[in-house]
Structures are given as structure tokens and as C-alpha cells.
Specification:
alpha+beta, 6 helices, five-stranded antiparallel beta sheet, elongated
Length: 175
């Protein structure tokens, strides 16, 4: 018989899973409390949270949220990263933290309605951030316009250069 506290935990996890932009399931065996707190601090500015969860309750919550296929990644001591901001930035932060802390391992994730493996998430973590991608796109779109303006201004620049040369020669010719 489930207790009231377990029901509340499942309801909370279900709501957070539904409201999130993505979820990551991690194994954290051997991670110290100070390291977990350090990790949480790194996720906070990215609107991400790191929760150590009980697998059986999380399976129920994921099923309620329509993410039951992600429940297969819950093996051993597990924690979830709940992403509310930019999922790619959060995934990057998780993998950056995992580089320096070998006790945390990403098992799987849920993003855009799909379950992603750790390898797929690793590939996403290598991508540039959303802001960098937007800047690159704008630069690519802007380049032809800048080139056109430069070509259109070239005859005027050349005319100004010719007139300047004539102006410099004219006083010399008068003397």
C-alpha cells in the first residue's frame, strides 16, 4: 500500500517531468555530497535541477508523464536532471561535469519526445550552444548582403579616390 509521502513524490516527479524540456537519467555511485551540491550549483543558472530519486517511484512517475521508455535506464543508484531551460546547454554542463567526476555517468535522456542513448546525448553535448548557432546562421545570412553593399559602394569609392588624386595634382599644376 503506497504511503501518502510516496504518492506526493510520484505526483511531484510526474509534474516536473511533464513541465520539463528534457530529462537525463544518471548513475551517481560513489559521488560525494559536496560533489552533488557542486553539480547542482552548475545546473541552477541553466534552469536545471539534479534530484536523487528512488527508481520504483520514478518509473511510476515517468509512466504517468508518458516517458515509460526512459524508465529502462533506471538501474542502480539513479538521479535525474530535469531541464527547464536550454536542454543543449544543460546536456553540455552534465557532460563537462562528468569529465572531471568519473563517478557520474549519463545513462539515457528524453528530449523532444524521444529517448536518447548516452552516445546520442554525448553527440548533442559537442554541438555549439543555441546562441552560437544563431550567431553563425545570422553571419551566414548576412554575408551575401554585406558583399552586395560592398560591390555597390566600390564605384563611389573609386570615384572619390580619383577626385582626390585630381585635387592633389591640381594645386601642384598651378604652381
Amino acid at each position: 500500500m503506497p504511503t501518502e509521502q510516496k504518492k506526493k513524490t510520484v505526483d511531484t516527479l510526474t509534474k516536473e517531468a511533464k513541465d520539463s524540456n528534457g530529462l537525463l537519467v544518471t548513475a551517481f555511485k560513489g559521488l560525494k555530497t559536496t560533489e552533488i551540491n557542486e553539480f547542482r550549483l552548475k545546473l541552477r543558472p541553466l534552469k536545471g535541477t539534479y534530484k536523487i530519486v528512488k527508481n520504483s517511484l520514478t518509473r511510476i512517475a515517468l509512466k504517468n508523464a508518458g516517458m515509460e521508455t526512459l524508465a529502462e535506464a533506471l538501474k542502480g543508484p539513479s538521479a535525474i536532471v530535469i531541464e527547464r531551460g536550454d536542454p543543449v546547454a544543460t546536456i553540455k554542463a552534465v557532460f563537462d561535469f562528468a569529465k572531471t567526476h568519473e563517478n557520474i555517468k549519463v545513462n539515457a535522456g528524453f528530449l523532444d519526445g524521444k529517448v536518447l542513448t548516452d552516445k546520442e546525448l554525448k553527440a548533442i553535448s559537442i554541438l555549439p550552444t543555441r546562441d552560437v548557432l544563431i550567431a553563425q546562421l545570422l553571419g551566414t545570412l548576412q554575408a551575401p548582403m554585406v558583399n552586395l553593399v560592398s560591390v555597390l559602394q566600390a564605384p563611389m569609392r573609386e570615384l572619390v579616390g580619383v577626385l582626390d588624386q585630381i585635387a592633389k595634382k591640381a594645386p601642384a599644376a598651378q604652381q
